[in-house]
Amino acid sequence: METTHRVFVEDSRDLSTLEDDSVELVVTSPPYPMIEMWDDLFTRLDPAVEDALEAGDDRGAFEAMHAQLELVWDELERVLVPGGIACINVGDATRSVDGSFRVYPNHARVLEAFESRGFDPLPDVLWRKPTNSAAKFMGSGTLPPNAYVTLEHEYVLVFRNGGESRDFEPGADRRYEAAYFWEERNRWFSDVWTDVRGELQDLTEDATDDLRDRSGAYPFEIPYRLICMYSAYGDTVLDPFWGTGTTTRAAICAARNSVGYELEEAFLEAFDDGIGEIAALSRSVGRARLERHRSFVERRREAGDVPGYDAEHYDTPVVTKMERSLRLREVSSIEGESGRYRVEHEPLSVSSD
Q: The DNA methylase N-4/N-6 domain covers which part of the protein (predicted)?
């Protein structure tokens, strides 16, 4: 199996390099409005943002920032296939402007924007990303009533483009081989994820401190899960806010195609420096999934409840008929650089089979 991966150093408010209905899934984490680390970016996109902040017009700044994101949402409506899924990882912001502290509900604003463009909202996910700082509590400490709840979660908002789900040809191998294990379904499709911790995506050792400071990447597990949940082999995943390339890395490990857009070429250079590690990552991710499944089966067996079906490609039982054709892939080779990559995948090699 071969997949292709492209990264454009371009502004994602204009995705004219992509044709209509050319991607099946969007997985992205945009810059969060009213988070201070993104003020400079939003100001470059629209100087009115800085003017509003300097004037203490927090609501005006909030709306101006979201107006820039909405130009991207307009493009997503065009390039995403009917029935395709968009997964938007976004967090709310807390901030004091002109001496007044409040929360800025980014998730609600994004939800409104997508629904107004004809997307159907689907059940979303909260993922908890606890911080361990001793000073994480805001306000008056232990004195009521002026202390504030600390935000330790982000949202994965899920939307379908239009009212109908995607169609597949009956018995499509690319869909059945992309199945997930029954116990993965139960964990992944829970509305609260407590087993994924927030962290900065590791960059290469020679990346500059400035590049690290500007990295707001979500953990690899977030896009990897979403890609497995909402796409099949042969699909293309788009990330219009590419950053350090976590979505592309996850798409490669999941054996899907991908497209990314990024304003800063330095992130692409850092991705090229670490591309040699992706083959080993894909192998370890696949083997970990299979080993977790085998441990799950063993626990079921000890409880006297052995799953009733056999996997076709692995020496293990599975719970449902739909899992029988499941086939994991690993990377055998990667060619290319500077935003154009061709990846060869082969069935996961597991010595214990």
A: 23-270
b/e code 181-215 from CB counts within 10 Å (16+ = b): bbbbbeeeeeeebeebebeebebeeebeeebeebb
CATH of the domain at 232: 3.40.50.150
Q: Is position 320 within any domain?
A: no
Helix (H, G, I), strand (E, B) or coil at 234: coil
Chain centre distance of CA 325: 26
pTM above 0.90, yes or no: yes
pLDDT digits (tens, 9 = 90+) for 87-124: 999 999 999 999 899 999 999 999 999 999 999 999 99
For residue 187, is it within any domain? yes
In this prediction, residue 132 carries a pLDDT of 52
Among candidate residues 251, 311, 257, 258, the one with its CA nearest the CA of residue 282: 251
Taking alpha carbons only, the member of 76, 44, 75, 42 closest to residue 60 is 42
Residues 6 or more apart whose CB falls under 8 angstroms from that of 3 comprise 251, 252, 255, 256, 257, 258, 342, 343, 345
CA angle, residues 200, 205, 207, in degrees to nearest 5: 75
Whole-number pLDDT of residue 206? 43
Separation between Cα atoms, residue 256 and residue 286, nearest integer Å: 14
Nearest alpha-carbon partner for 325 in 311, 304, 309: 311
Q: Which residues of the chain have pLDDT under 50?
A: 198-209, 212, 352-353
3-state secondary structure of 332: strand
Give the number of domains in the chain: 1
Is the peptide bond prior to 145 cis by the omega test (within 30 degrees of 0)?
yes
- 73 located within any domain: yes
Three-state secondary-structure class, residue 113: helix
Tokens of 59: 């609501």
Q: In 3-state terms, what secondary structure has residue 233?
A: coil
Tell me which residue range forms the domain holding 246: 2-279
